Amino acid sequence: MNNAIGVFDSGVGGLTVAREIMRQLPNETIYYFGDVKNCPYGDKTKEEIIKYTDRAVKFLIDKGVKMIVLACNTATAAALDYLQDKYDIPIIGVVQPGARRAIQATENNKVLVLGTKFTANSKVYDIEIENINSEILVFDKACPAFVPFIESEGNLDKEATKNILKESLNNTSNLGIDTVVLGCTHYPILKKDIEEYYGSSIKVISSGREAAREVSTVLGYAKLHQKKLNKKEHKFYISEASENFNNIASKWLNKEITAEVVEI
Ligand code: DGL
Predict the structure, then answer these.
(1) pLDDT tens across 112-140, in order?
(2) Which of 5, 71, 184, 205 is catalytic?
(3) Is 72 a catalytic residue?
(4) How far apart are CA 1 and CA 246, in angstroms?
(5) DSSP 231
């Protein structure tokens, strides 16, 4: 089926998932929506997050997408069930794939999830992981400084990044964990620095790869795969002009991207 896959995030974070979908499923077209105007979502209430996510999902559905990926852990935690009930097309989030990756990765059954305030407070990873493997101990740590830093800093300064990691991740390496889950899709943009912070004995994982695999499974099951390379151009929409979005998108996806500003 020649329709695009809708990928949504509050900002640039979902590009880390979009890139993985593009890599694993090169026949597919992506329509991406970044709600930069309302970013960050992590400090908002459940009702607000549902309202903003629903608006963006409706926009993508009106563009004719065949499925939606909530490439945002916060939106997944707050709005996935609501949206799955509301709309007929397949909608998946990133928490379940992230939880599965964590279960595969940990050897000592101690996992730390880094996320936004909303994601950490929701304990959504604890619930997903416990549903599959109740022997795993999950710690949650909110890092509210990360998303505004990534969204506002085109060229993430090495020293500034180091300082922000030191302040935010204080006291987390002594928890006895062997795996850190990047439970916010923005964080893979800092993955190398986070890996450096924790050192080689702790694995740092993200949900992008597993989420892309789930997209493929859902498309296969619903017979919605795009079979031939006759796809359309990927499209990028943002809710407010943002040079930073274009810069990060171009860098992350390795081609010049100018997102279209839309009012929704
Ligand atoms: N990328 C979003 C996530 O995965 C960031 C949330 C935010 O806007 O605070 O949670």
Answers:
(1) 999 999 999 999 999 999 999 999 999 99
(2) 184
(3) yes
(4) 29
(5) -
Out of 12, 60, 65, 72, pick the active-site residue: 72
Distance 81 CA to ligand 1 centre (A): 17
Q: Answer yes or no: 184 catalytic.
A: yes
The CATH number of the structural domain formed by 95-207 is 3.40.50.1860
- Ligand 1 pocket, CB under 6 A: 9-11, 13, 39-42, 72-74, 116, 119, 147, 184-186
Given phi > 0 = left and psi -120 to 50 = alpha, else beta, which region is 194?
Answer: alpha
Task: Give me the mean pLDDT over the 83-108 stretch.
Answer: 97
Distance from the CA of 21 to the center of ligand 1, in angstroms? 18
Q: How far is the CA of 187 from the centre of ligand 1 (A)?
A: 9
Tokens of 180: 């850190």
- Return the closest-CA partner of residue 202 out of 191, 210, 213, 212: 191
CA distance 80 to 67: 13
User: What is the domain class of 5-93+209-261 according to CATH?
Assistant: alpha beta
150-192 tens-digit pLDDT: 988 666 788 999 999 999 999 999 999 999 999 999 999 999 9
Q: How far is the CA of 42 from the centre of ligand 1 (A)?
A: 6
Residue 259 half-sphere exposure toward CB, CA atoms < 13 A: 29
- Position in ligand 1 atom list of the atom nearest CA 39: 8
User: What residues does CATH 3.40.50.1860 cover in the chain?
Assistant: 5-93+209-261, 95-207
Task: Please tell me the distance from the alpha carbon of residue 88 to that of residue 91, in angstroms, as a whole number.
Answer: 9
